[in-house]
Amino acid sequence: MSKYILALHQATMVSRAILFDRHGRPVASSAVDVPSTHLRPEWITQDPETIWSSLVRAAKEVMTKASISAADVAAIGIANQRETTLLWDRTTGKPVTQAIAWQSRISEPVCNRLRSESLEKEIHRRTGLTIDPTFAGTKVRHVLDTSSDIRARVENGTILFGTIDTFLLWRLTGGKLHVTDPTNACRTLLYDIHRHAWDDDLLEMIGIPRAILPEVRPSSQIHASTSKELFGAPIPIGCIAGDQQAGLFSETFLEPATLKASFGQGSSVMVNTGKTAILSKERLLTTIAGEIDGEVRYCLEGISFVAGGVVSWLRDGLHFIKRSAEIETLAQRVPDSGGVCLVPAFVGLGAPHWDGSARGAILGLTSETTIEHIARAALESLALQTNDMIEAMGGDLSTTFASLSVGGRAASNDFLLQFQADMLEMPVRRVSVLETPSLGVAYMAGLAVGFWTDLAHVKRQYVEDRVFHPAITPEARRQRLAQWKSAVDRTRGWRGL
């Protein structure tokens, strides 16, 4: 009898494999870094072959660590960085583009054209998204606009499009499946979230041929099995899902009005809205959260392009620290940021601003400013961006929230979560398994193959690690939020000056 579920998370900077037992506990893990290339500061790509080989390597390493074979794995669940886009040859399976990263602004000219044609309201109504280079459809259009060779091959029917989930599923099954799921399809600007289908009008607006699109299937089902050659025996693939929605599932089980945040290279904040797709008036995204008992659930989402990435920048770019964990020690050496605000708008501002012209800034510097103040301001920026998004959610839903559930690697930072609780004036609950996307797809894959009997079974496995409660005065909170909002305003419109 198979003992484990293998969760594969292909994230922005790393491919991770985790084995989970029947209690939803991680028993072994492996991670392989995935580098990015910056053609310009805001044009970001990754090598698809490196993405693929890193994921296979992580999967094999974790099985070796646990001394198991493919026969011990009941199913694989796949979580992926969303919106990252590539095209590949239908016959050979070889990529014909780099993977254009979700943060990349390379398709800004496409977005400018769509805005100039006054399509924003109609696209928002159908997709729940704003016109922005983040989303996959604009990236595909950019490729077609800039490569006559690829455009000709698309017209000849020899090229396929996919986000990372689709590419990995194609490779894992030896080219048998060209499939995505609703949580990824809804991030393309090509998918009607109300009709649950690719939309011909959207395809015409953006200029994408339907023939290159994958089939859309439910996230949690037995999609196929891996090629025997990969792991020595076939393993059923029981789930594919966008990583943020997978994390939402593991933290909230899609219960209405529940709120979660995830801190990775970027950050995502989501609130479940149940069976209703609420179109945001506060410049948030309306997106598909997943399915429960065959019924689609929705959420509102805010994303920031840079969250934990600011810590990577302090480590690798400025060399303030040698290891990411050191930033918490630095931040705690000072009682506050000394009036310093760091706005990590390296490629623009995400929700609720959606301003590609903004650029990062450190404001409030004096001759008394130290590395510790900058480190603290950097960590605070993660929480302050989250605060902006949750404030917008409250405006859309005309409500306040009881608490925030948090996951992601940066959520191990106690200082960050305490500051988050202070800024939100609400409890912040850290889950015991921080790698929430992996746990989410493990649960969904396990449910698909009967590893767990039903949703109630997996709900009983939910465990919190710690709850952080607000601990500052309202006046201190007001002052810090006012500083932050002023700093954000000063970053806007910088590109092009």
UniProtKB/TrEMBL annotation:
Gene Ontology cellular-component annotations: cytosol
Pfam families assigned: FGGY_C (PF02782), FGGY_N (PF00370)
InterPro entries attached to this UniProt entry: ATPase_NBD, Carb_kinase_FGGY, Carb_kinase_FGGY_CS, FGGY_C, FGGY_N
GO molecular function, one term: glycerol kinase activity
Keywords: ATP-binding, Kinase, Nucleotide-binding, Transferase
Ranges for domain Carbohydrate kinase FGGY N-terminal: 4-249
Parts forming coiled coils: none
Gene Ontology biological process terms, A to Z: glycerol catabolic process
tRNA processing among keywords: no
Matching CDD domains: FGGY_EcGK_like
Top-level taxon of the source organism: Bacteria
TM stretches of this protein: none
Family designation: Belongs to the FGGY kinase family.
This protein's name: ATP:glycerol 3-phosphotransferase
Species of origin: Kolteria novifilia
Taxonomic lineage from the root: Bacteria, Pseudomonadati, Planctomycetota, Planctomycetia, Kolteriales
